[in-house]
Design brief:
alpha+beta; globular
Length: 434
């Protein structure tokens, strides 16, 4: 009989690897935090939320960790202090005394529940799992109902090592990336629109019917991610038809399938580059969508994704090869600057949230995070029968949102501009700034 390893036996300390690049490009201006904002049907019961969070975190001990530095290497060590819940919409600084030195925290106000988590520790896929568990426990007690447990991780379950072990660090069989010519610079939204003096980070939230948008996507040989990327490309091209640089949208891709690591909690997000080529601009939308889908297919073949992971692994190994934090910050800054130059905007769609029976108690759902570099990120959430598109910008101007909404109008897609908010994300206290 093979002895089953337990979390506490194997995870007393885990050296950071996949987390490194995200850690070193984090700043007070661009905190790499995933903020999940859930507006419930009714006012939040603080005592029930406290119990729900405590029970939820029992199921995810690899998120109950403290960032420490030992012998020049950062590690996540078990943190048995309570995960903090505050009565506010601002939350608390992560990795601080106020957060009990956790990289995850919760807050609430009125009928809003918010979860903040360091993006280097997980991605949307991993964050959704935690929220799925939290909503199960909270809604079960808040509404005195017996919700179905199928597809939800619950406290007391055996936690497989595949959930917490880093699936990238030990891989020595990743295919070498092909030597390609360096990508040309992409159209820069801020420069194109003359927004250099507009530094107000802003979120525009737009809702569309899930069933109608899915039907529109399928009718045009696309998926929600590719269609949103295409509509954004078309909108930008119409604003700046004479722009010299190419419009290039980075569409986020889940790398777990290629790694054969479906249970991994780490931040495993790659990207495919969708280029709105000059010869495409006169094509009908369905033909453009087919072209974008072809780009996605070609770039998400397993070998292609693994090549991207090999490059990602190499960056983290390069960071580890530097002895000081300042040297690592310089390397990360240079890489980040290169990424900024070759991407016009980014689109992220985790997939249908599938919070199951708890969705009936949810009124609104938002997913916020920092934009990598400059420009714009559209986060797509599918909850309770509608898509919410969060246009997360490093500027306040609505010029690109308005152009996108015009594309929706012209294609007969009904939308609701729900609200406009300042992008509020909690700071992460970085060890080299203390």
């Amino acid at each position: 009989m093979i002895e089953q390893r337990t979390f506490s036996e194997e995870y007393m300390e885990q050296k950071l690897f996949t987390e490194l690049r995200t850690l070193y490009v984090t700043s007070k201006e661009r905190p790499n935090v995933i903020r999940i904002r859930i507006r419930m049907r009714d006012l939040v019961d603080a005592e029930i939320l406290r119990r729900a969070v405590d029970t939820t975190m029992q199921r995810y001990p690899y998120f109950c960790v403290e960032l420490l530095k030992k012998e020049g290497q950062y590690v996540f060590a078990e943190n048995h202090r309570p995960v903090v819940i505050t009565h506010s919409l601002a939350g608390v600084e992560l990795n601080s005394k106020e957060s009990n030195y956790h990289m995850i925290a919760f807050c609430w106000q009125d009928n809003w529940i918010i979860m903040d988590v360091f993006h280097g520790m997980t991605d949307g896929t991993g964050a959704y799992e935690v929220v799925r568990t939290l909503l199960y426990y909270y809604c079960s007690e808040r509404y005195n109902v017996k919700l179905k447990e199928e597809g939800i991780h619950l406290a007391g379950e055996e936690i497989s090592p595949e959930e917490w072990e880093d699936p990238v660090v030990g891989r020595s069989d990743l295919p070498l990336p092909r030597r390609n010519e360096q990508m040309t610079d992409a159209l820069n939204l801020i420069a194109a629109a003359g927004l250099e003096d507009d530094h107000r980070q802003t979120v525009y939230s737009v809702a569309v019917s899930e069933s109608e948008f899915m039907r529109f996507s399928l009718d045009n040989d696309g998926s929600p991610g590719t269609i949103v990327s295409l509509l954004l490309s078309r909108a930008i091209a119409k604003l700046y038809p004479e722009a010299g640089n190419i419009i290039r949208i980075a569409l986020c891709v889940n790398q777990r399938n290629a790694l054969q690591a479906p249970l991994a909690h780490q931040s495993l997000v790659g990207g495919v580059m969708l280029e709105y080529k000059e010869q495409m601009r006169d094509w009908p939308l369905d033909r453009q969508a087919t072209a974008y889908r072809g780009m996605v297919f070609a770039q998400t073949l397993e070998e292609q994704v693994l090549m991207g992971l090999a490059s990602f692994k190499g960056i983290n190994e390069l960071l580890l090869s530097r002895e000081t934090d300042q040297e690592r910050l310089s390397v990360a800054s240079n890489i980040n600057a290169l990424t900024t130059r070759v991407v016009t905007a980014a689109v992220s769609y985790v997939g249908k949230a599938n919070y199951r029976e708890a969705e009936q108690y949810i009124r609104d759902f938002r997913a916020w995070t920092s934009v990598l570099g400059e420009g714009m990120l559209i986060e797509i959430s599918a909850v309770n029968g509608r898509f919410t598109l969060d246009f997360i910008q490093t500027f306040a101007s609505p010029v690109f949102v308005n152009a996108f909404l015009k594309e929706l109008d012209e294609n007969g897609i009904v939308y609701d501009l729900q609200d406009v908010n300042e992008l509020e994300l909690p700071n992460i206290v970085l060890p080299w700034t203390v």
